[in-house]
Amino acid sequence: MFTYTLIKHTHVTAAALSLSLFLLRMGLELSGNSQWRKTALRWMPHANDTLLLSAAITLVIIGSWNPAIFPWLAIKIALVFGYVIAGFFALRQSTPRRIRIIAALLAMVQIGFIFYLAIQKPAL
Ligand code: HEM
Fold first, then answer.
1. Which of 30, 49, 52, 98 is the most exposed place for a label (fewest CB within 10 A)?
2. What's this model's pTM, rounded to 2 decimal places?
């Protein structure tokens, strides 16, 4: 039980950090400051997201969270893919600015739903 709680806290902390780091990078990009790509901000989000997903998979296994039984989890996993793809285009420099802003908004809407589903766990 203690191990599960520890992993859950790790997952939640990494989730909050994932959103913060995305917003920070997007804010810097939109204000024309791309220098973050030469700082630790380049690799930190990847390390954090690896931790986030590793903790998620561990919770699914040791907590017996079967997405076939819990539809909120299946939708959440699908939204995580959407968040990753939208985030990729939002931060890609070669993507036109208008598309990047739309992708950033899509990423934020999706992570909003991810948090909602994770916290409320609605019986769908
Ligand atoms: C951007 C990605 C993700 C975010 C922001 C996120 C966020 C969260 C948050 C905030 C909670 C805690 C909810 C609570 O207070 O009870 C949570 C729980 C959980 N997450 Fe995630 N999550 C993400 C990805 C994933 C993925 C990919 C999986 C599965 C492969 C997953 C599986 C779980 C499970 C099973 C719980 C329930 C733990 C419990 O209540 O005991 N998460 N998630």
1. 98
2. 0.93
